[in-house]
Design brief:
This protein is mostly beta strands and 499 residues long. It has two domains: 36-452, Pectate Lyase C-like; 453-499, no CATH class. Helices cover 5% and strands 33% of the residues. The chain has two helices and 39 strands. Strands 1-2-5-8-11-14-17-20-23-26-29-32 form a twelve-stranded parallel β-sheet, with no helix packed on it. Strands 3-6-9-12-15-18-21-24-27-30-33-34 form a twelve-stranded parallel β-sheet, with no helix packed on it. Strands 4-7-10-13-16-19-22-25-28-31 form a ten-stranded parallel β-sheet. The N and C termini lie far apart (78 Å). The model is unreliable at 1-11 and 447-499 (pLDDT under 50).
Length: 499
């Protein structure tokens, strides 16, 4: 054993070793993150203070029951340690019920006298915050400010709400600040399903129904993907002028984008507006953000299915409509199916339009670029809301590759057909057909009209000489579906499921 104390070459290093070790231990103690906590909340607990105290890495679990207070989540998580607030039982979520009085009058830490206290029941402004399996209903106000109340108000693009239900509020979800994300959720019986006032808003696999209007967007970036919109009395989507947060740096124009990808827009006889998606440039103009530059909004409409309905009294029904010339929309439409409309496209403004591989039952050929006209879409069962292309459908094999309409990517999932499908991902693994759904041969579908565990999908086109089988597994406990390519082998024979 070495005796460092008697070594002339080592004795002078001992204090340095001790100092280094001590500093390392102190640094490790200081840098060690606080242990993540599990915070449990019940209907008879203190409530909002405990939820709002959650820190990075904490998980707040809320038991089933009825709750009568407002929540604001200002604390921030991190990408690796988000704050998670969730219902304990996804099948029986906690209900935050605000019926009976104006939303700002319910208990909560957000000051009741604040001018925007009327705007939200749940405010999520912290970064990396996830709220899931929670229901919010009945949030409203009658103040003279004319500001409507949102069930969930998101103000940070790193935060998200997933598998939530926003029912009977003035606004289902409002995006402001830098935006946010909503996925696999139900927005029903709200006056407006989504209000997009600021930032980047992303909506995926969400079911919207029974509203006066579904989506109003006047901010920088909107992505609506694999969602189902139906039963609306006025309009489905209006893209209006961008009043702020839309750029305009140097000599560049005010830039914004709207991407509608893989959605179902299903009209009903009660729908009053003659348009489904309105690009509204009737008001506003070049200087709304103070830069003096012209607004140019890029609109990508890809792999959507528009389903019309008989209306009484009869009136014009158009899928895409552009109006006004205060600023410009550049519309790029690819791989869309339009069924039961007078026209797929109508414009009375300065919008530009390009695209291709679209299909429509009626209308004027050429108005929507590359549109093919046909007598019937031949859905599997439109009466049962199964809008997959059936055997012999003209929608099959008509789509063009996603490389053509870049930078938008092909939708990764299919829209949920009813609320029971919201808890699981319905993957889309092929994009040969136009519209929001891909054909599945009857011999490979379980017969129930949806993709689920055990269904075998045809191999993607463009792989001649390969036989590829892809099986869809049931979703796991978190509701995420897993795709496993099984039995994939290089074979000289063509797959029997290629068509």
């Amino acid at each position: 054993m070495w005796d460092l104390s008697s070594s002339p070459r080592r004795t002078d290093l001992l204090p340095r070793y001790r100092a280094l070790v001590g500093a390392w231990l102190a640094l490790a103690f200081i840098a060690a993150p606080a242990a993540a906590r599990e915070i449990r909340i019940g209907p008879n607990d203190g409530g909002y203070a405990e939820i709002e105290a959650a820190q990075a890495g904490d998980e707040v679990i809320i038991a089933a029951g009825t709750y009568r207070y407002r929540v604001q989540l200002n604390q921030s998580g991190t990408e690796s340690m988000p704050i998670v607030v969730r219902g304990e039982d996804p099948a029986n979520p906690p209900v935050f019920d605000y019926e009976g009085q104006q939303v700002q009058q319910w208990p909560g830490s957000y000051p009741q006298s604040a001018p925007d206290a009327v705007r939200h029941a749940w405010l999520i402004s912290g970064s990396y915050v996830t709220v899931q399996d929670v229901e919010v209903r009945g949030a409203s106000n009658t103040s003279a400010s004319s500001l409507s109340t949102a069930g969930f108000r998101l103000r940070n693009q790193t935060s998200r709400v997933t598998r939530v239900r926003s029912i009977g509020n003035q606004i289902g979800v409002e995006f402001g600040g830098s935006g946010g994300n909503i996925e696999r959720s139900l927005l029903a019986n709200n006056k407006t399903s989504v209000a997009h006032y600021g930032g980047n808003a992303t909506i995926r696999q969400t079911l919207m129904r029974d509203a006066e209007e579904h989506v109003y967007s006047s901010a920088s970036k909107l992505t609506l993907e694999a969602s189902w919109l139906e039963r609306v009395s006025d309009y489905f989507i209006v893209v209006a002028e961008c009043s702020y947060e839309c750029g305009g740096v140097g000599t560049q124009p005010v830039a914004r984008s709207v991407a509608l990808s893989g959605n179902i827009f299903r009209r009903s006889p009660s729908t009053l507006a003659n348009f489904t998606v309105l690009l509204d440039a009737r008001t506003g103009g070049p200087s709304l953000d103070g830069t003096g530059h012209n607004q140019v909004t890029q609109v990508y409409v890809v792999h959507n299915t528009f389903v019309g309905a008989e209306v009484i009294p009869p009136r014009e029904q158009d899928a895409l409509v552009a109006q006004g010339s205060a600023f410009r929309f550049d519309v790029h439409a690819w791989n869309n199916a339009v069924d039961g409309f007078d026209d797929a496209w109508a414009s009375s403004g300065s919008a530009t339009l390009d695209g291709g591989a679209n299909w429509s039952t009626t209308g004027t050929a050429g108005l929507l670029p590359g549109t093919q006209l046909g007598a019937a879409a031949l859905f599997v069962d439109a009466g049962a809301l199964d809008f997959r292309p059936a055997v012999g459908s003209p929608l099959r094999g008509l789509a063009v590759s996603a490389t053509v309409y870049a930078p938008i990517v092909a939708p990764s999932a299919e829209p949920p057909r009813d609320s029971s499908a919201l808890g699981s991902n319905q993957p889309r693994v092929a994009w040969a057909d136009v519209g929001a759904f891909e054909f599945v041969p009857p011999s490979q579908d379980g017969g129930e009209g949806s993709l689920d565990g055990g269904d075998v999908l045809p191999r993607p086109r463009g792989l001649p000489g390969w036989a590829v089988g892809c099986r869809v597994l049931p979703p796991d406990a978190l509701g995420w579906a897993v795709l496993v390519v099984w039995g994939c082998r290089r074979s000289r024979r063509r797959s029997a499921t290629a068509d």
